[in-house]
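Recall the central idea of this unit: under ordinary conditions, the amino acid sequence of a chain determines the structure it adopts. In this exercise we apply that idea directly, starting from the sequence alone.
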Amino acid sequence: AIHSIIVSDTRGITRVFSYSIAVSYFRFMFRTFQTIFNSVGASRTAFTSSETSAPQMVPEQFAVEVTNFATQNSALIATSSDDFGGLLFPVFGLLGLGALILFLAPPLADED
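Accordingly, the structure predicted from this sequence is:
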């Protein structure tokens, strides 16, 4: 009793495979997938460090310097919607982008 598998693709081509050929094909595909998966995993672990290091603490003086820098330059941080022109840049940016799209768009022709 020879078993067969009928496979048809999207183009309407129908193929008949014997059971042993289909099993060997699926084994081949599984081994190929397994080899690719293992090689990706091996390459990923090859470049990672196996050593674990203790977390580094931030020196207190560095934290104080960062805080001082932020407080001295607080005028550069936008705190309300009116800072740096409010909606001036977004509005002109969108208008400019729209103008560029209209400029680069091909002319619309009639389909006559």
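The mean pLDDT is 75.
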